[in-house]
Amino acid sequence: MGANQTAEPKASVALATGPAPGGEEKQRRRVVYATLAGTTIEWYDFLVYAQVAALLFGDLFFSGLGQWSQLTALATAGVSFFFRPLGAIVSGYLGDRFGRRIVLVLTLGLMGVSTMLVGLLPTTAAIGIAAPILLILLRCLQGLSAGGEWGGAAMLAVEHARTGHRGRMGAFPQMGVPLGMMLAIVVMGAFNALLGKEAFDAWGWRLPFLFSVVLVVVGQYVRSQVAESPVFTELEESKAKAKTPLRELLSTHGTKVLKAAATMVGNIAAGYMIVGGFALAYVTSAHDLPRAQVLMLLFAASAVWIAFTYVGAWWSDRSGRPVVYKFGYSMLFVLLLPQFWLLSQGTGLGVGVALLTLAVPLGLTYGPQSALFAEMFPARIRLSGASLAYAVGAVLGGAFAPMIAEALTQGFGTVIAVAPYLMVMALISLVTAFFLTDRSAEPQESMADR
């Protein structure tokens, strides 16, 4: 083992042994609050766009495209995914060279500014073709931010955890996606109720974007209270940091990036049926279900998602990450056809059952992800590896999942046609789970040095 690797155990042993002093426990609680709050706000910004795009942006920014306006609006939600790898590369370099905390601050700030500007953007009726161009540019900035946010938050959480608790500690930034969805639904629902549908569709849709400014200020304050990762601090003190993290990552662990990405494509593709706006757009347009009712069902599904995210993380600490992935993706594969049949019926009860049952395997396969990714890469290039794997998985699994679902529904005349596409994605992740090495019980000094 080389000098760069031998420097890691000192900090990691401190994390893994015995009951932590009161100061460390207090810091862990701060990490929980900071990663959960910041990631929730980040994803609130990201998902408000997806929901409003599904409902309104086709008419407001792409009305000249006729029947393709809705499909194009959903595509703008997906184009941001192609900027996630760039965000992951930049944040990975910053996080592995200068610390995990700086990534959290920069990504949250970038997301907040770009989201606020969407709320101020004139529509096509006011400034013509410049409106959709600027909209897409702002969505790309959101993609840059999202590409870096997850890795910084997830690795900070996991690197503060004790051995045997990495899954649970890493579950908190994972909860930010469904919790951000719930926050987006509450805010959108509140403004919709206060203003009425006509006013909300005309100008009130801007308010959820502008409200982001308040949330970002709160999130930045919470994150400013968090100490740097002890693992990174030890790397810095021992001068064991990677000089060129991306080059080292691709030359020594490139296949692990692809493997990690493959474990999440099934989750991302299916998850974006809920958070990407497809379910909301489909059932409110094809079956005329009231928008408020569908938002409440999505809210309930997000709550179930949160609960099973923690269950999946806890279970992975007890039985290993691969066991949970195998069970979760098997469950998702089996349930997809009946779930989309229920959606096709268009009843409130059927839609509710479909969304709630979909959230269970989504949570199980999302909860262990932070810990799994941390355990796959050495500490010196961990943030680069985890961020890039997450970004690649997001592109392959979720970039155009809502648009593909919309195209399949239109092409085959039924929403059931979406199920086989998602089943293929779930199968890819399920097969990958059989090739994972479980390191959930290993201490931090040995969990990723191979």
UniProtKB/TrEMBL annotation:
Residues 1-23 are annotated as: Disordered. It holds the Pfam family MFS_1. It comes from the Bacteria. InterPro entries: MFS (IPR011701), MFS_dom (IPR020846), MFS_trans_sf (IPR036259), Sugar_transporter_CS (IPR005829). The chain crosses the membrane at residues 46-65, 71-95, 102-121, 171-191, 203-222, 257-282, 294-316, 348-367, 388-405, 411-437. It is a multi-pass membrane protein. It is found in: Cell membrane. Keywords: Cell membrane, Membrane, Transmembrane, Transmembrane helix, Transport. Its main location: membrane. Residues 31-441 form the Major facilitator superfamily (MFS) profile domain. This is MFS transporter.
